[in-house]
Amino acid sequence: MRGKRILFFIMAAAVLILHPAAVYAEDAEPQEKTEEELAAQEEKEKADSYVTDVDTNKLAGWPQGPQVYADSAVVMDMESGAVLFEKNGDKQHCPASITKLLTTLVAVENAELTDKVKFTEDSISFLQYDDAQIGMQAGEELNLDDALHAVLLASANEVSHAVAENVGAQRLGGNYDTFIQKMNERATELGCTNSHWVNANGLHDDQHYTTAHDMALIASAVYQQEEFRKIMGTLEYKIGPTNLTKEERIFQQNHKMLWPENYYYYKYCTGGKTGYTDQAKTTLVTMADNGKMHLAAVVLYDYGVDAYTDTKAMLDYVFDNFEKVPVKDKETSGDIGHFSDPEGYVVLPEGIDFSQLEKNIILTGDGIRNGKVTYTYKGQNVGSTAVILTEEGYGKLAGKAVVVKNENAGSKQEDTSKDNPTEPADSGKSKLYIATGAAVIFLILLGTVLLYSRKKKGQHRR
């Protein structure tokens, strides 16, 4: 009897271990928070983010930038790639609808504005009642020009999907997935190192993520496209009757900094894209031009209109504290024959001299001695430009050439193996279950041995 009781307790322990919901409180169904509790949680989150250090403020001799509510933020000079303000620039976040900047870039680089965009059931059926859309129907057709206005101004999710579907089929020789693959390839070409794209509109997916630094690279690239700048100059747009509807569709630009009568209007703002999902919070990309510099400002995981106040503070800080410094007459390296762009420059604050910079030269693979020189100040990218190397310079680099596919600067090569969202979230629990399973087997074997031992002793006594 005593042996049976021991076996009973062992089996009971095994049942408890194999059902961790009975032991681990975190597996219990969480209780829903009240609106007041959620608001208090967000306020604390905002306060904590606001006092988080700005990375560029830690650079000796660098002007102190503003505190911002955004969890991640970057301001980049769009021509040189200089990163002038940075807070958690390489931290991964969900992008929400600023995804559509990359969608637009891939579309205008691979298609014509006169191309037809036909809507399928697939491009409509995924929509939820509160998703941004303009009410397109399956079978309806637009030209790509109208479609991209809807993508960028109205942030229409079904139109973004249809653009990807049609460009993927008509121009890339595949389908919707082909277009998404092209988005990932193009991002990599631009120097993005911490992004992954699974859709064309930015609706939430755990495998759809980017960083403020990567988005600044994408913004810099799409801003070079004349079609994009033309669309950004439009505050209100009208799509006329289509093959399925006689009604006009009229929609407006969502970026508040572009509207002269809006409280958040910014006189230097020339374009951008808004975004929001519950998981991403507010995301915002803003392009600005004060006549001297063209900047891309990005904020991720921000809080409503705080995204605009953060962006204004960041842009004002850069415009007020930095200026272009031409490199042609300052560079003395014997490895550089001449600069491909005679107006190439770095961007520096007052008090930091060109002589304090370090440089890295790489071959670009688009010519025998073509290269790119990137200048840094204490590891911070302050600009890059294309160069033609001397024979001596080429000889030094030929054995260790690094090929890049474009002239966009500013990328940071980092080990992204840590904090990788593709790793299953419950991998830790899986390891726990394996360990506890092994423990259960051990306990059962131990119990069997004890029972057998007692049985042998009993036989001996009898």
Automatic annotation (TrEMBL):
InterPro entries: Beta-lactam/transpept-like, Peptidase_S11, Peptidase_S11_N. One of its GO terms (biological process) is proteolysis. The active site is at S97, K100, S155. The chain crosses the membrane at residues 432-452. Residues 64-300 form the Peptidase S11 D-alanyl-D-alanine carboxypeptidase A N-terminal domain. Residues 28-40 have a biased composition (Acidic residues). Residues 412-428 have a biased composition (Basic and acidic residues). Keywords: Carboxypeptidase, Cell shape, Cell wall biogenesis/degradation, Hydrolase, Membrane, Peptidoglycan synthesis, Protease, Signal, Transmembrane, Transmembrane helix. It holds the Pfam family Peptidase_S11. Residues 1-25 form the signal peptide. This is D-alanyl-D-alanine carboxypeptidase.
